[in-house]
Amino acid sequence: MSVDTQKRTLAKTMTWRITASLTTFIIAWILTGNLAIGASIGAIEAIAKIFLYYFHERVWYGLKWITDNQKLRHIIKTISWRFIGAIDTLLLVFIVYYFFYPNDDGSFNYEQASIIALAMFSIELITKMILY
After folding, report:
1. Scanning 64, 92, 112, 121, which has the fewest C-beta atoms within 10 Å of its C-beta?
2. Which of 80, 90, 100 is nearest to 24 (CA)?
């Protein structure tokens, strides 16, 4: 693996993460109406997905599958990343609600977390695939 390839992967990882986490923050803020929840989800996502995205890029760099049709390869790579990213976002919403924003009695707000997680999953599935 050449140094240039590693630098390119790191650059792509960081620029995509800034764009995607800002998008997640805005979507979470709009859906919840709460700046703190939006910031929490966006910040945790930024950290978690830096690692996920980097490994996704490295795996795809190593795959020699569909090398003759780069457009198809790019589409499949985009879909695979969006699937991984969407599942991660679903989990992060539940984690944020469970640990940081419980109900007044201290219980887990499963219903609200489910609604926000599914809404974010649906919105991000489309918006981030287009952005990517």
Report:
1. 64
2. 90
The answer to whether 38 and 28 are in contact (CB under 8 A) is: yes
24 close to 124: Cβ distance less than 8 angstroms: yes
Residue with tokens 């976002």: 89
In angstroms, the first-to-last Cα distance of the chain is 24
Reading the block at residue 90, the tokens are 């679903």
Number of CB atoms found within 10 A of residue 98's CB: 14
* Residue that the structure tokens 């969006």 belong to: 82
Four-residue CA torsion sign, 48, 53, 54, 60? positive
